[in-house]
Amino acid sequence: MQKLFNKILVPVDFSSKSKSAIEKAVEISTRHNCSIYLLHVVTTSPFELISIGESPVGTPYNIIDKNLQLEFQLEKHAEYAKRLAGHSVKIGFGVTEGTWNKTIIDLVNEQNFDLVLVGQKKKIMGNRNMLINPDKIAVNTNVPVITVPANRKIASLYSIVIPITDFLPVRKLMYGIYIAAGNNTSIKLLGIENEQTKESVQYYMAKAYRLIRDNCNVKVELETMYCDNVADAVNKYSTLKSGDMVILHPGAQTNMPGFFTSLVYSIIRKYAMPPILTVTHG
Q1: CB-CB contact of 278 with 248 (8 Å)
Q2: Mean of the pLDDT values across residues 50-58?
Q3: pTM
């Protein structure tokens, strides 16, 4: 099977979730022989500064001193990652100025990273240290993004949930098979259907099942739900059933129905659901 993960980018804001993300990155890099790059962005956007609870006003000397301190902290995180990996993984790090989303997108595209791993902050309310939009990064780089909610431990993967609708999600299946094959993980194909899509969903469920069975020995489970909205169905399924990772397409599959509901659940998605691997169609 083609090697899909070679270079992992981990945004770091020095919170406990960043440390957990680093630990997960080390686990993936050790298994798939990847390099890791730790990135901290010194925010220059007044909007982001206010959002994370910092003053948008500062002197150049303060900025220089702060950047040196941040580089020192980031180096300590890199040393921590090297200790975890037993010095078997190449680990780099850097501090740069800008905005989180644009900096990540530019770096991924320029240096050919093939996975971004983001840890989320512990509390829903209050200021965030990183303003990162996984969907935006995935869409603008065509690179998968793993988002790890704050209240879910990053542990071994035992099941990967892949929603199936009225088309064959080839890239979701490709990444699901790749991750499952290296983790002794089962794949749960979740068919999400309504009266209009029932026939096509069943067709693509069968096709996805055959694709997996023909390419690996991963255990596959099939289940269906009746729902008009994929994000709503996945949220309900994740609440009721077990699942250690969900693979979604950005956009329609991550947006809850209704403006207010979508806004609320886009927050909940980052804190309450299992880790999400966001991957584009192609």
Answers
A1: yes
A2: 43
A3: 0.84
